[in-house]
Amino acid sequence: LRMSEVPEAPAAAEIAYEAYRDEAQLPAVMGIISKDLSEPYSIYTYRYFIHSWPQLCFLAKCGDECVGAIVCKLAMHKSGTHRGYIAMLAVDQRHRHKAIGITLVKKAIQRMVEENADEVVLEAELSNTPAIRLYEKLGFVRDKSLYRYYLKGSDAIRLKLWLK
Least packed by Cβ within 10 Å: which of 32, 47, 70, 92? Predict the structure, then answer.
């Protein structure tokens, strides 16, 4: 196979973004996220987030294929702040470097702003430099180190974006 015969992934212009609509989209969201994230999530975890905050779940699609997804929540934190939380973000490897991840995050943050969020937080694996860079580009700051946070024993960093 010559390089000229390797099919290229479609350009970013061919990516469509949509809000989560219904349970029929759940397998696509689970599929893209389970391929990418280091933590195994049960269907109950997905349902907790998506059924409680469907307006904070967005998909990136290339044709009929889900190539990215973000799953979030928004609730009162014990500190008294209205806190948004980015639980999961994944983009298919074939579609990276097309601003899909950053677009999904911006869509989620915009919805959180519309719902009066004070701040947004998330955890990222300390070794996941591309993800940390993406969030820092959006104004997130490193808030807290979390030693052996993930099941496999790896460390995490909590990132926070203040909206107010």
Answer: 47
